[in-house]
Amino acid sequence: MRSPESKPYLVTRRLIPENQESPIPFISAAVTPEQYFYRRNHFPYPAISEQSFKLSVGGEILRPLVFSYQDLLRLPSKEIMVVLECSGNNRRHFAPKVFGEQWEGGAMSQGVWKGVAVRELLKWTGLQATAKEILFEGSDYGSRTDLEGEFVFARSLPLEKALHPDTLIAYALNGNPIPYKQGYPLRLIVPQWYAMASVKWLRSITVIRTPFNGPFQANDYMYYPEKDSDAGKMPVTTIHVDSIIQQPIDWSVLEVGAHQIYGLAWTGTGFITKVEISTDGGNHWEPAAIQKDPGNPYRWITWTYTWAATQKGEYTIMSRAADSLGFAQPAEARWNRKGYGYNAYSTVRVKVE
Questions:
Q1: Helix, strand, or coil (residue 294)
Q2: From residue 313, how far is each of 143, 173, 347, 350 by CA, in Å?
Q3: Domain Oxidoreductase molybdopterin-binding: where (predicted)?
Q4: Rounded to an integer, what distance in angstroms lies between the CA atom of residue 174 and that of residue 104?
Q5: Do 169 and 202 form a contact (C-beta atoms < 8 A)?
């Protein structure tokens, strides 16, 4: 266990571009502090200019418009608490191993985002009947190892998701302007979807009539169930139901006695209904106490379980969650060659002395 005076820190996966994990085992607040918010980048950080504070809306609309930052601040706004999780979170646990950033459990964070619903902007521009998807383009760009040329990070959403009242053009996080490394000045926030959809440094919105096939939509962020073919590929969208054991930490040494096992659970569908704990490697399961928050449907929930460790030895502790739509964590995650959507039981090993 950590000592009271210890301080957590981000876990570095790569420096250029910067990819760092949140110290999830030590995050106790519902809102992740800015300095501990995880960072996921495909390219170097973009330069912020005066143009960065303008948002253009074009394509299959009736009235193309450019909104200034101040325009957005004057429009009707809302605040929502949202867990953002990288779709590659826990990639290192896949077997067989897959290439990519070897995230453990910290490619996720939670905050209160404030902004304007995309649908609110489109009230001003209107939509043409030909509209099929909405494309969101960031300011970050660079080269890839698999394709020639330079590419901007861009993603599209189907109309239904883009026009959901809680899909936001955010300009504030936790009551302050969005931090630069989290997408300042504007970031798309798409609740319940993996965070690749929440485009940072947003600079343009384009309503399109055909499916978008940019590399971060058609090449990456697709589930490829076969190692050597594209058969059965499917897009990465909704967050899978999941949980994580925060304490005790993996490979901890504990004393005989009572111990609090606690952690987080979250889902992209409905809400968490139960979390179960096993202290014997999955042979027996007991319910954990969960702290529901019906007023915040997109946040993680906390859970606790009191374990009476009466005998010395080595133990495998597991957690599993289930949600209101019947989805549950599996014993094994569904393997895919890019390593997305890992959500097998959370597991830690401890020794009681």
A1: coil
A2: 51, 45, 17, 8
A3: 42-214
A4: 25
A5: yes
Q: Is the pTM of this model over 0.90?
A: yes
Q: In whole angstroms, how far apart are CA 197 and each of 45, 141, 206? A: 18, 16, 15
pLDDT in the model for residue 348: 98
Buried b (16+ CB within 10 A) or exposed e, 145-181: eeeeeebbbbbbbebebbbbebbbbbbbbbeeebbee
Residues constituting the chain: 353
DSSP 8-class letter at 328: B
Please identify every stretch of the chain with a pLDDT value under 70, giving residue numbers as ranges.
Answer: 1-5
What's the one-letter identity of residue 351?
A: K
In DSSP notation, 148-201 reads SSEEEEEEEEEHHHHTSTT-EEEEEETTEEPPGGGTTT-EEE-TTB-GGGS-SS
The pLDDT assigned to 200 comes to 98
Q: What is the rounded CA–CA span in Å between residue 118 and residue 61?
A: 13
From CA 208, how far away is CA 74, in angstroms rounded?
Answer: 27
Tens of pLDDT, residue by residue over 107-160, are: 999 999 999 999 999 999 999 999 999 999 999 999 999 999 999 999 999 999
Contact at 8 Å (CB) between 315 and 350?
yes
Which DSSP symbol is given to 261?
A: E
334, with CB counted inside 10 A (0-12, 13-18, 19+), is middle
Joined together, the tokens standing for residue 228 give: 């050597």
What are the angstrom distances between the C-alpha of 31 and each of 110, 174, 263, 290, 293?
A: 5, 7, 15, 18, 14
